[in-house]
Design brief:
The protein is of the alpha/beta class. The protein has helices at 12-19, 34-41, 75-86, 102-109, 123-129, 172-187, 224-231, 250-257, 268-274, 284-297, 301-317, 320-331, and strands at 4-9, 24-28, 45-49, 91-95, 114-117, 135-138, 157-164, 192-196, 214-217, 232-237, 262-265, 279-281. It folds into two domains: 4-142 and 319-331, Glycogen Phosphorylase B (Rossmann fold), CATH 3.40.50; 157-317, Rossmann fold. Helix content is 37%, strand content 18%.
Length: 334
């Protein structure tokens, strides 16, 4: 297979997951090195995601729009995109933040030739906002099977886990679901270990509530999350977007890929693609019934069969190998 050379601007998770792909070489693009990379290595495509930092924070405040901070600009990104176009390198933008942050990225997105969004509902908005010459497609979250994969059941911790963030000032519905889940697993005596993605941020807006039987630990590396999902008897997931047929938490498919037992809130995407492989809840009573059963009896054979099937399903359908093949087809690369 021919090696695919990708010039990339992305945050750490996406860069890592694509970087593990066989027959794929990634070159991290910064505002300083892009001419050298494009001329010397001649990448097959220029891939940019809706990144907040980029490689070593080199794209912080340079991709999204910040209306309250007019000095923050995407001018350097546009310069790189235009340079890639002059060299005939296809330019691809993937908005992993749709539909919440459609407006924050549209001023950057419209300069690219190929747009991919995690939220199918946003396609009409893109078609209205950008040139008719620009191609718009859906590309969902994917896992990297070299990191998140099933290797049998060995739950070392008879507890639940949640790896992610919590916020007091935004996403009130998401916070309500988290509070319901956290209170259920803690009050049942199962207990909860949280790995706080925002442990490095000082603001009280990101602090988790204090509950009995709940411990909050610092953030972990992306690779470490795989063992967290394999080692804990239950993994909690919350999806912020509930009305999209294609948008779901990246954490959901990572847990499933590892053979984790998932409790997740109900969404359109969950119903469409993942309901057979998760414990899907909408009410406090539903989660209490699951948690009390697991606390009392442990995991059932049905739980394990469901989890193994979920891993097989995700690893067959939601991988970066599949996503890169789709990008190549859309762009016209062999």
């Amino acid at each position: 297979m021919v090696n695919l050379k990708i010039a990339i601007i992305a945050d750490q998770i996406t860069t890592a997951t694509i970087g593990y792909e066989d027959n794929c070489t990634c070159y991290n693009i910064t505002p300083l090195n892009y001419k050298f990379i494009f001329k010397i290595f001649k990448p097959d495509l220029f891939f940019v995601e809706s990144a907040w930092q980029g490689y070593r924070n080199s794209w912080k405040f340079k991709i999204a729009s910040y209306p309250d901070h007019p000095k923050r600009s995407n001018a350097k990104l546009i310069k790189v995109v235009d340079y890639a176009k002059r060299l005939g390198i296809p330019t691809v933008f993937w908005n992993k933040e749709d539909g919440v942050h459609f407006d924050r990225f549209i001023d950057s997105v419209k300069h690219f030739e190929y747009i991919f969004t995690v939220d199918e509902n946003c396609i009409p908005k893109y078609q209205e906002a950008v040139s008719s010459k620009i191609t718009v497609n859906t590309m969902m979250f994917a896992v990297q099977p070299k990191i998140h994969y099933f290797k049998g059941f060995d739950f070392k911790h008879k507890r639940a886990n949640f790896a992610g963030s919590y916020s007091h000032h935004i996403h009130s519905k998401r916070r309500e679901i988290q509070d319901m889940m956290f209170e259920s697993v803690c009050s049942a005596g199962l207990g909860l270990t949280v790995f706080d993605r925002n442990s490095g941020r000082d603001s009280e807006n990101y602090r988790y509530p204090k509950l009995d039987n709940m411990s909050v630990k610092s953030s972990v590396s992306y690779k470490q999350t795989a063992d967290i999902y394999r080692d804990h008897m239950l993994s909690l997931n919350v999806n912020t977007i509930e009305d999209s047929p294609t948008m779901f938490s990246r954490r959901l498919i990572e847990i499933l890929a590892c053979g984790g037992i998932v409790i997740t809130n109900n969404t359109l995407a969950v119903q469409k693609m993942f309901a057979k492989y998760c414990h899907v809840i909408e009410t406090k009573q539903q989660i209490d019934e699951i948690v009390e059963r697991v606390t009392r009896d442990g995991l059932s054979d049905d739980d394990l069969v469901m989890a193994k099937a979920g891993s097989e399903y995700v690893l067959a359908n939601f991988t970066w190998t599949n996503n890169l093949e789709m990008i190549k087809q859309v762009v016209g690369l062999k």
